């Protein structure tokens, strides 16, 4: 402590002189990284760090009820703020419970630093109590990970972890700290100028490639912007630049699930989401376009459908910060490696510097085709007076919450797709969903994380009856921290998405997709100390939603919806973008025969 | 593609592009777990490893060199390189098969047991292949041979009928020709 006091009076060598314990270094590094909140769960191997948490006030620790909850909360926190999410868990089971959230963050490129406790260094490899090979287990599900063996490396590694998590394509980083390292005394170094020796992602796009791309864009007759989560990750500036670029060109724009909100859904150039459950107009435009401008998206298989029939006649421009995303599944003509925001700024400059104009006449024809597709009204569904249609529930939820400061998270399933189709996002960072991994149980803890970052906002988890039960225990954390987010369950008594696939592909044999013994969600909410609301009548829905919004504290809303509704439009497997199944008038038989008999034989 | 799809949530497709064999030279930070990371990438993403050598090459800079002989379609090979390059401890990756004809060598130690005529024949062949004798007993030799994998394989197959009992090989290590060095 003496050394510490002395060092504060010194200016020159302050960095070397500051000595403290490993546990103190952890808290100090978090503070110096600007961390205000972290999500965690204690245990033997992190007790020294928890002891430090107890003795400081800079970083607020949110106690979850399961480590998976901590990881998703950190994801929601990160996704809604643009900051790095921070997680603290103990060794062994604490670390293994975090694996799902780490993988989820890796798939969706969410910046996260996860600190795990480890057994003391001399016990590593001994099958000690609560020992597991954390760096081994998390190696394939993190962007990078570290085992800290010397307390003098700890500060550097922690700062480096934040650098790696937030630079380039963001992702989760694990720092595994043995208990003896937490007790040992070592030097603290500040985060200034810490960057990685070799990891220096490229931000600026190659100028000649940008030039070539803009030339192709200018000469396009049937262009489309295809944007993704990379635009959100790049920061709010990127969303602004996207709006500028899209409006400047006048071209239509669609987005992946992960990119919703980067471009306002109310805009006339917006085609809606694309992909397996995307809109007819978006998928048709992708199929028929002559120039595709892919910004921060990665040609995921839920987007492309069958790759050999994917947008067969287009010149493809692909901007991505990760070179391994380029030409991975779809061959592109003009790859540009760089930060999507930076490259869009370059594109805007290059576009303005050109004297030419896009072909007005061709574009008019293109918009005419698009309007014909729009007139198909692919999201139309049969309204019902007696039961709440799930689509209707989302529509009403949207209408009653759109003028508020609202954030939406989801679980995984039909409800997620209906939320993406029917809730309209105007701004980035308002939509948190598990895209790449498709993790049921993501939405509730994610909403918790969002609410921690935005105390006064209206945060809603649009949930399914099955998904919500996966990490339901975080209701208890919500009550403890007075986090008033709302859980809006589209309760169809089924694992709806699984049931839909079984109907479509497996002769409607509903093997284990019906949830028997459903809990009483209203009583469940009350048991946790929250409020429960149930609604099953369309004409009572608005009042019930309003009541949910007006209720202080967390609410579980059991919205009883039509049990067997299917999510359309849909590109069935093995089909191309222009072979979509449309919703309204599809009978069960048509759904059943969407995949040819011969195809089923091959299962 | 005209084969019928099975009913699946994924589009199933066989890739029939020709398979090529390439030698990659990877410069990495010599930190714990780095080899596991690189190998894990190969197994996790279903890439092949035909041979692998690794050792620290610059002690002060804590830098190691990993040489991997891998095979895949042209697209997969490009993907392997991109996936390697984005790993945090990887400094640089060179595809030595693409950058020009590289020098590739491996070393093998080969144990041959036998008597009489067979001993003479083994020595004669070893001489022809410039293999060195590194251990001798009354009824055995251990030979050391370096060269291209083809040469090593040829030597081994010639030793087979003579009394080959054991082989160990280092796997291929490789370096580019000319004055340029791979970026560290
Ligand atoms: C952790 C996990 N396990 C299994 C699945 C596979 N899965 C995808 S959707 C789904 C059903 C979801 O049911 P529910 O939450 O009720 O949503 P619904 O489709 O009915 O709206 C299942 C089991 C998954 N995505 N995640
Ligand atoms: Mg359900």
Average pLDDT metric of chain A: 93
Continuous helix count of chain A = 26
Poorly predicted runs of chain A are 1-15, 595-603
How many beta strands in the DSSP annotation of chain B?
Answer: 9
Mean of residue pLDDT values of chain B? 91
Structure summary:
The complex is a heterodimer of chains A (603) and B (184). Chain A is α/β, with parallel strands linked by helices and 603 residues long.
Which helices and strands, and how do they pair?
The complex is a heterodimer of chains A (603) and B (184).
Chain A: H1 2-9, H2 14-17, E1 19-21, H3 22-32, E2 37-40, H4 47-54, E3 60-63, H5 67-81, E4 85-89, H6 93-97, H7 99-107, E5 112-118, H8 134-138, E6 144-147, H9 151-166, E7 172-178, H10 179-183, E8 185-187, H11 207-218, E9 223-227, H12 229-233, H13 236-249, E10 253-255, E11 270-273, H14 280-288, E12 291-295, H15 301-304, E13 315-320, E14 334-337, H16 340-353, H17 360-374, H18 390-401, E15 406-410, H19 414-422, E16 431-432, H20 443-453, E17 458-464, H21 474-480, E18 486-491, H22 496-505, H23 521-528, E19 531-535, H24 541-550, E20 555-560, H25 588-592, H26 597-601
Parallel strand pairs in A: 2-3, 2-4, 4-5, 5-7, 6-7, 9-10, 9-12, 10-11, 12-13, 13-14, 15-16, 15-17, 17-18, 18-20, 19-20
Antiparallel strand pairs in A: 1-8
Helix pairs in contact in A: 3-4, 3-9, 5-7, 5-20, 11-16, 13-16, 14-17, 18-19, 18-24
Chain B: E1 20-29, H1 34-44, E2 51-58, E3 63-72, H2 74-85, E4 90-95, E5 103-113, H3 117-128, E6 132-137, E7 140-147, H4 149-163, E8 164-169, E9 173-175
Antiparallel strand pairs in B: 1-3, 1-4, 2-3, 5-7, 5-8, 5-9, 6-7
Helix pairs in contact in B: 3-4
The structure holds thiamine diphosphate (TPP) and magnesium ion.
What does this structure look like?
The complex is a heterodimer of chains A (603) and B (184). Chain A is an alpha/beta fold and 603 residues long. Chain A has 26 helices and 20 strands. The termini of chain A are far apart. Chain B is built from 4 helices and 9 strands. In chain B, a hairpin with a 2-residue loop joins strand 6 and strand 7. In chain B, helix 3 runs antiparallel to helix 4. The model of chain B has no long low-confidence stretch (mean pLDDT 91). At the A-B interface, strand 6, helix 22 and helix 26 of A face helix 1 and helix 2 of B.
